[in-house]
Design brief:
Helices cover 61% and strands 9% of the residues. It has helices at residues 8-33, 42-51, 66-69, 91-110, 129-146, 149-157, 162-168, 173-187, 192-203, 208-217, 222-234, and strands at 56-59, 70-77, 80-85, 118-121. Strand 2 (70-77) and strand 3 form a beta hairpin. The structure holds zinc ion (ZN).
């Protein structure tokens, strides 16, 4: 994951745009596959990316240079889209990388960057400031799609542990931590130190506080709009 020196205001902006891009995707998946957002998991996302978007997702070849230096890549060519990923990384990081690259794809659509391709290195060095923001947004898209707010909130309210949440969303400890941290600081506008304490408690098996905050700030209404829409489409 990329360490950033991006200021809080920019972080907020990036989080909002990442959330917007992710939500548009999740809503579409939810509607097309008739599955509520709170039940969307990694496997549904991958199936949808492959079948609906026609994206080819492939590990790098065993002897390729990419396998030594790159984590993932996105290639857009004459309308074809391919995501490459390094299968020597741990599984959770592979998942995050695949959705990071898909995040780049959603960015090209959103910002009309036709035929732009991306390569991400295993060492995250050498990004310019603009690229850092793009990378940060792609990370947030990946994180948000892996653990949609509605799904995350639901699990927390079902008393799932921190560890269980990581398992459920196929996220590493670090990725789970960041997802919760972004949610608390950038959406709930909590002080970082308070957010850290709440997440630490959660990791230690104490979920009262996090439950309280997810309860207070996250309504579960928006997916019902989709149900209404689906029901109307059926009639
Ligand atoms: Zn990237």
């Amino acid at each position: 994951m990329i360490k950033t020196n991006i200021d809080y205001e920019s972080q907020l902006e990036i989080y909002e745009s990442a959330k917007d891009i992710s939500h548009e995707f999740l809503n579409r998946l939810s509607k097309d596959c008739q599955i509520p957002i709170r039940e969307i998991r990694f496997n549904e996302v991958i199936n949808y990316i492959e079948n609906h978007y026609g994206v080819l997702i492939m590990p790098y070849e065993f002897k390729s240079i990419a396998r030594r230096i790159m984590s993932g890549s996105l290639l857009i060519n004459h309308g074809g889209v391919a995501i490459g990923y390094n299968s020597t990384m741990i599984k959770d990081r592979q998942n995050f990388t695949i959705l990071h690259e898909f995040g780049h794809y959603l960015q090209t659509k959103r910002y009309h960057l036709d035929n732009q391709s991306y390569s991400d290195l295993l060492s995250n060095r050498g990004y310019s400031d603009d690229e850092l923001k793009t990378e940060h947004e792609a990370n947030m898209i990946s994180s948000y799609i892996l653990a949609p707010k509605e799904a995350l909130s639901n699990l927390i309210h079902e008393d799932s542990s921190f560890y269980r949440i990581g398992q459920e969303f196929k996220m590493s400890r670090q990725a789970t931590y960041m997802r919760l941290f972004d949610q608390l600081t950038l959406e709930n506008h909590m002080q970082p130190i308070t957010a850290k304490n709440i997440i630490r408690d959660f990791e230690d098996g104490k979920n009262d506080s996090i439950k309280d905050h997810f309860n207070r700030y996250i309504p579960l209404y928006d997916e019902w709009d989709i149900y209404d829409q689906i029901m109307q489409d059926q009639m």
